[in-house]
Amino acid sequence: MRCSTLFVALSAAAGVLATAFGELPAGVPRNVHEFRLKHPYKSNGGGSDHADGQRPIVKIRPSRNATDGVADEFLKGLHKANHGGTLYLPKGELYIIDKPLDLTFLDDVQVHWDGEVKFTDDTPFWQANAFAHPFQNSLMFWKWGGKDIKLYGEGILNGNGQRWWNEFAGLEILDPDNEYLRPILFYAENATNLEMEGIHEKDSPCWTNFIVTSKGVSFTNVIVTAESNNASSLPKNTDFFDSLNVEDVTVERVWVNIGDDCFSPKSNATNIHVDTMYCNGTHGQSMGSVGQYAGEKSFIQDVVIENVWLLNGQHGARIKTWAGPDVGYGFVDNITFRNFWQAANEYAAFLDSCYFNIDASTCEQYPSQMNITNILFENFTGYTSGKYGTAVARLTCSANPDAVCDNITFKNFNITSPCGEAVIICDDIRGGIGVDCVPSNSTEATAALAATCTVPQATIAPPF
Ligand SMILES: *[C@@H]1O[C@H](CO)[C@@H](O)[C@H](O)[C@H]1NC(C)=O
Ligand SMILES: *[C@@H]1O[C@H](CO)[C@@H](O)[C@H](O)[C@H]1NC(C)=O
Ligand SMILES: *[C@@H]1O[C@H](CO)[C@@H](O)[C@H](O)[C@H]1NC(C)=O
Ligand SMILES: *[C@@H]1O[C@H](CO)[C@@H](O)[C@H](O)[C@H]1NC(C)=O
Ligand SMILES: *[C@@H]1O[C@H](CO)[C@@H](O)[C@H](O)[C@H]1NC(C)=O
Ligand SMILES: *[C@@H]1O[C@H](CO)[C@@H](O)[C@H](O)[C@H]1NC(C)=O
Ligand SMILES: *[C@@H]1O[C@H](CO)[C@@H](O)[C@H](O)[C@H]1NC(C)=O
Ligand SMILES: *[C@@H]1O[C@H](CO)[C@@H](O)[C@H](O)[C@H]1NC(C)=O
Ligand SMILES: *[C@@H]1O[C@H](CO)[C@@H](O)[C@H](O)[C@H]1NC(C)=O
Ligand SMILES: *[C@@H]1O[C@H](CO)[C@@H](O)[C@H](O)[C@H]1NC(C)=O
Ligand SMILES: *[C@@H]1O[C@H](CO)[C@@H](O)[C@H](O)[C@H]1NC(C)=O
């Protein structure tokens, strides 16, 4: 059955829900093609195809076939283009990267990226030879760093993740007996003024971008997808964005169809602005997780995330802080989630102070040591999936008297549940949240969580 026919059938079965649920508001792109039409990528070059026509252009030999690695040429090209030039990867050409590259020497360089850069999928080779970062067992194919780096074009950065997903199937990266590291498609460290524009980041084995100790980072008109051809090994942990220690990050107009967080800065992030993201099948717009490592301070502050469409995923706006016997401390402060449209996500807003998978009694015994202050959830519309019944949002703050949860506010929050009248659950928040909410141990919360139902997936494919 064609998607549209299936959807009509399901909508009809859902009866009265058919008009309220399952349709995107007008003008929202439903696939990569519509995204490009709505947010066309254009290089801003004066009279040239290149962003700055005055820069010397460097070209390198493309790969002749899928095993013909050109990592050495890529490195040489960047050395040559460094200090004022542009490495040009023309459309239709393929560049296979078959060994790790240290690209931390960059200083005023651009890559005009219309072709495809693709990593080999020799998993044993990368496991043995790639760079590593201790944070959550990360592994990096390459490292970008330096200053004034601009990567732009309509090309592809391909992580060739299928073999990794097949081999990871059933494993958790953080399991102590899992020998796989967490391969990252794009890693930057110690970068100042790093821009990525237009590029399609495709099929990352794990996290798509990981940015460490950097300042002035932007992603604009970027497309991020991770799609498996194997139903028993779906992409996992393929977050669009993770970071440690970053300042001044901008994300504007990004399409994300992957299998984990849509956007999730981790420890030490300041001044973050996200405007216009489309996230299908993700775990949401997440602050953190933070506070994971014993004795370590971490924080996230001064964040605005606005104009976001989230469909068919886990949660919508989310804050996650670790609890347990050996965790860190710190704060999450001054975060605004504004103008969120959601369809068929589990909780539209979720503050989880019992991360990661800590059961209620352990969380009570070892509550999170993170303060959470000045958080605004404003102008939320749409509906949940019904997985948590009529509960549409859940805010669980730490029960630790030294970890305050203060000034957390819902304003113009209009998320409905397909199962009945919406309920918001909240625990341990000082002064309320500006709208009615019930504690998780109340009879109202128990009844809300029990009233589960289902809705059809929100369609994002165009009518065929
Ligand atoms: C791929 O290209 C390389 C370099 O030209 C060549 O040595 C190799 O034989 C080619 N492999 C295949 C399978 O065509
Ligand atoms: C970070 O980059 C700056 C210049 O951009 C350099 O001076 C410094 O040594 C780098 N630090 C590390 C740890 O690589
Ligand atoms: C699909 O993934 C499963 C689980 O890892 C694996 O056993 C199987 O070989 C994969 N199928 C193909 C065609 O690669
Ligand atoms: C959107 O995400 C859902 C859930 O992961 C997935 O089943 C569906 O195929 C995605 N839609 C598209 C068009 O990729
Ligand atoms: C975060 O900042 C604190 C100091 O405020 C520092 O102690 C900690 O090491 C930093 N964490 C990371 C991951 O950089
Ligand atoms: C809160 O964060 C926003 C966005 O970064 C910033 O403009 C504002 O000054 C911050 N507010 C305070 C009180 O620091
Ligand atoms: C958490 O808040 C309390 C009360 O305001 C304050 O004493 C403490 O220093 C804060 N902790 C951090 C890590 O900011
Ligand atoms: C509460 O937080 C909001 C930002 O979310 C801020 O604008 C407001 O000033 C804060 N109120 C108080 C009393 O601190
Ligand atoms: C709230 O959303 C509506 C409809 O999407 C929009 O017109 C309005 O400007 C938004 N309000 C704010 C404060 O952004
Ligand atoms: C809430 O949203 C529903 C549709 O999702 C709409 O019918 C209703 O008017 C909205 N309520 C408010 C107060 O905006
Ligand atoms: C719910 O838990 C709070 C403590 O968090 C307790 O004071 C209250 O009595 C409990 N209510 C019920 C109905 O168990």
Automatic annotation (TrEMBL):
It is found in: Secreted. GO terms for molecular function: galacturan 1,4-alpha-galacturonidase activity; polygalacturonase activity. It comes from Pseudomassariella vexata. The keyword Signal applies. Belongs to the glycosyl hydrolase 28 family. Its main location: secreted. It holds the Pfam family Glyco_hydro_28. Residues 1-18 form the signal peptide. GO terms for biological process: carbohydrate metabolic process; cell wall organization. Keywords: Cell wall biogenesis/degradation, Disulfide bond, Glycoprotein, Glycosidase, Hydrolase, Repeat, Secreted, Signal. The lineage of its organism: Eukaryota, Fungi, Dikarya, Ascomycota, Pezizomycotina. It catalyses: [(1->4)-alpha-D-galacturonosyl](n) + H2O = alpha-D-galacturonate + [(1->4)-alpha-D-galacturonosyl](n-1). This is galacturonan 1,4-alpha-galacturonidase. The keyword Cytoplasm does not apply.
